[in-house]
């Protein structure tokens, strides 16, 4: 959590503004912090999961995402959450909780922070 907060303050708001665009699309590509496999993190209204294969083309092994509790949101994530809610974008606010939540690598079982991996894979 400390790493994430440091990253948020160093990287500034731009990355998260652009991340919100990805959030609209509902998909991120991230690397596993342990085994390095490339994953799709899919945040949808009905189903939120991560997987290592192209889920659009085939049946894949899905690993469910764990959204952060609303009460645990603070700093920038909280601002994003309240801003999207204030804009009436409830589905986006819902997605923010998954973006700042946790996921488990389907290959090696390592739990990681989705937002941290998004930042780690960020190319300006
Ligand atoms: Zn892994």
UniProtKB/TrEMBL annotation:
Note the superkingdom of the native organism.
Bacteria
What name appears for this protein in its UniProt entry? Answer: Uncharacterized protein
Annotated source species: Streptomyces lateritius
- Give the organism's phylogenetic lineage: Bacteria, Bacillati, Actinomycetota, Actinomycetes, Kitasatosporales
């Amino acid at each position: 959590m400390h790493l994430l907060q440091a990253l948020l303050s160093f990287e500034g708001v731009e990355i998260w503004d652009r991340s919100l665009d990805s959030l609209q699309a509902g998909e991120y590509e991230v690397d596993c912090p342990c085994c390095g496999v490339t994953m799709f993190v899919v945040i949808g209204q009905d189903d939120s999961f991560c997987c290592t294969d192209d889920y659009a083309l085939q049946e894949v092994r899905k690993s469910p995402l764990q959204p952060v509790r609303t009460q645990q949101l603070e700093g920038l994530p909280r601002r994003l959450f309240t801003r999207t809610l204030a804009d009436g974008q409830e589905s986006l606010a819902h997605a923010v909780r998954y973006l700042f939540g946790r996921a488990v690598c389907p290959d090696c079982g390592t739990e990681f922070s989705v937002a941290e991996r998004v930042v780690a894979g960020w190319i300006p």
